[in-house]
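Figure-free illustration: sequence to structure, shown twice.
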Amino acid sequence: MSPGLPLLPLLLLGSLLTSPAAAQPDPHDPHTPRDAYNEPYSQGMSWVNGFRQGFNFQCPHGEALVAVRSYFSEAAGCDRLWTFECQPTPEGLGEPTDCWWDDISRAGLECKYFESVLDREWQFYCCRYKRRCPYACMKTSDVPEQYREEAEMVIPAYGFFIRGAQTTFSGVLRDRQWKYIMCRMTDFDCEFENL
């Protein structure tokens, strides 16, 4: 698990992949921590994973990832529950011209959980739209602000897209903080190669 991920020059579309690496603990097992299943924030949300499980999430075709939420539980093996929201891309953006799964992270998400290190390996699904250029880019502060806190990142306004992500892992606290790079996309074709 690398401490930082490269900035991605492409639009992150809503896809996330993870494979189950360990089964979720049985809530009827007397050795399972009770608070792993009864914590207030974890109730009532549509999580894409269980604690200590991999997952695969992808936004529907024509939509992009616009919100990421997670909840940390030390009692459930120093892991997070995750949920994501997608939104249709503006009509003027057109259809993606190239999409792929990145080894580290991009538009969709895939995640494997490794119990031996209490951490996840991430892959993201990215797409390029014609020759549109990113502009008005900004990087978020750490999400969550402190390790082991609830986390939420929502794009600031319609027309912004997640272009990339960086992550830092704390081996002591067994948790990650993320920074997301968000940009707008031009509504005209750019003259630049290799965007």
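We now fold a second protein in the same way, so the two outputs can be compared directly.
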Amino acid sequence: MVSKRLMLAWSFFVICLLAAGIVTLVLSIVWRQPNLLFNLTFSPVVLTGGTVLGIIFLATFVSSIVLVTIRGKRPLVMLNWLLLVNGIAILFVGTYIWFSTLHERNNYHNMFGMQSNAAKIAIQDTLMCCGYFSATDEVAFGGTFCPNATAAVAANSFCVTPITKFADTKLNDVFSTMYGFTSIVIGLFLANMCVIKKRQEEERFERIDVKRGGQGFV
């Protein structure tokens, strides 16, 4: 029989997976809301990846609750395959975000250039900078900090540093957390393997008991 201590450990990791799913899904939705720096930092691809990952976590949580109530080891073997999918999804999304941090200066130069003049002006006023790599690079004149070319040159403050600093901090936090979720998946996988092992032993003893005519063991 599976011990209560083992099932408590299994339940702990399942609850952690639920929490990871809720956090991932909620943040991927909240960060879509209008926010100058967050909208610049997190691309729609990254946010969609977060949404999909959150849904996978929650679907695995629901599946685990259903599968553990079914007798036998096969349902839990199916759960381990689902956990393998979880691990692959985490590595894919986390590595995609990590890879984007390797070329931040150029990546955000392109993203900054794609913004409307109104968005550029708002970013420049917020970060107190003019242009991206220089006062003439992708600059938008207007607002309070960069009203014209003369003010932009005089400010001698470019947006590449504050933008990449903000983005680097947020992206590092996100992909580090993503990789941290692998510990939940691995923990649940190992706990699930232990439960499978116990169920295998139960099935073996049941088969032996049947061969003995249901007399049980002395």
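Summary for the second example: The CA atoms of residues 125 and 145 lie 5 Å apart.
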